[in-house]
């Protein structure tokens, strides 16, 4: 890591992320809140707040985007958010007689709050590191953030899931730069609060197949547009870095 590496920004980001996570899961500060959906969001809000504070304080040049390099916001919103809500909600309605719309949207928003930090901010700060080193660092920071340090087999499995999730979601972000897209992938496991069984695994497989297929199709069809978008983004970042180089 060279002298220009944003140590201060990373420290601020992670300290804030840990602080809000600790309040949510290790204290009783939110015990008076009866809304379970709000509690879910509060438990995952730290990475987003940490990212925004770090960007503001250190003037790190970063352009967080919901749509990324897609043509408009509607497309990733429908594919990565609307589609899973309709699919999982419809299956739930057939099997259980209920359509958990609010829960599904809350899970997606929770994923978005986390992904603003882990991919939108942290992955961008580690982008010049060797790929494996970046994945391992993000995995460790992500694991520690959950504040669950029990030496159990389930925790080891969870660490492995985070490692492959960091690699896979990171690939999605590098391909789309869309926070809506990575929030969708992040939420795959969180959609199913009662564990993963036959139906749940089939739904995950269907979503993954549709999403990956869509991404490959879109990249092939609009490759030139995506390349122009990335060039413009790099030029904007280079300009911002020159203007703020004294603050980093």
- Strand-pairing-aware structural class: mainly alpha
Helix and strand pattern? HHHHHHHHHH
- Strand residues, percent: under 5%
C-alpha end-to-end distance = 14 Å
Question: What are the key terms here?
Answer:
single chain; 248 residues; mainly alpha; 10 helices; globular; Membrane protease YdiL (CAAX protease family)
Topology of helices and strands:
Layout: H1 7-26, H2 36-43, H3 46-58, H4 74-96, H5 101-125, H6 131-145, H7 153-176, H8 179-186, H9 198-221, H10 223-244
Helix pairs in contact: 1-3, 2-5, 3-5, 4-5, 4-8, 4-9, 5-8, 6-7, 7-8
Provide a short characterization of the protein structure.
The protein is an all-alpha fold and 248 residues long. The chain is built from 10 helices and no strands. Helices cover 73% and strands 0% of the residues.
Structural write-up:
This protein is mostly helical. The chain has one domain (7-247). The protein is built from ten helices and no strands. The chain has helices spanning 7-26, 36-43, 46-58, 74-96, 101-125, 131-145, 153-176, 179-186, 198-221, 223-244. The model has no long low-confidence stretch (mean pLDDT 91). InterPro entries: MmRce1-like, Rce1/LyrA-like_dom.
